[in-house]
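re the bet — no i am not wrong, look at it urself. input seq straight from the record:
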Amino acid sequence: MLYNVSPPIDRVFLEIGPLTIYWYAVIIVSGVFAGLWLATRESDRLGLKKDLFIDLVMFALPIAIISARLYYVVFEWERYQDGPWWSVFAVWEGGIAIHGALIGSVITAIVFARVKKVSFWQLADIAAPSLILGQAIGRWGNFINQEAHGGVVSEAFYNNFMQYLPDFIVNQMYINGAYHHPTFLYESVWNILILILLLVLRRKVNPRRGELFLTYLIGYSVGRFFIEGMRTDSLYIIGSLRTAQVISIVLVVACVAIMIYRRKTNMVNRRYNGKKI
């Protein structure tokens, strides 16, 4: 099952003297700017300050990168414990985790909301489509690096599906003498579907405050759970338990519980105040 495979895409985007800029960095930054553009448009529509999300990103982005790297290093400590010590900080060599980035971003947003005296849930709802858009774009950085891919595909899968993908994707998924599942593509497409759902909910349904963000977490977690099971580079908690799958289950259960709790609390408060829902 070998068909005129072209060389993989060069990971280097641009070299200027000693400075090397990688495609991965360009794609991640593009995702950040696309998400920021979407968030500022929505915050402007709601009458919030235009620079609110720019300020938030200035704080959240570096913290998200640090927390994403720390998360990865903690679960892959055996790779780093024998040094060199600087390898712990070598983000350019790969090794960041989206769940770590989410943890850092949420904590930053909570503190930021309190300082700015705005609703965290409102910020989270505005940011939800931006986050999933950034993730959808960011997965193409994994594509360039030939990472976060799945196992070797069968000949039947190649003939019935993979051969119909664009050649540049098929060729890039030819790794170590075999074609692999483009799980980066599966997740990117799933994230785009979640983005569309969130935009429809925001404009047509206008859900309760906070529920758009919770829907984002649920939707992403469901897709990530199944796609993670196909990947070959998963982080593990204990034995064969994949960290991302466990976190996905916890997030789904927690988000559903929060939705139910907040709705019941709102109903009780409205009844107490003598107001109709």
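see?? The longest strand covers residues 12-16. told u. also Residues 12-272 form one domain. so pay up
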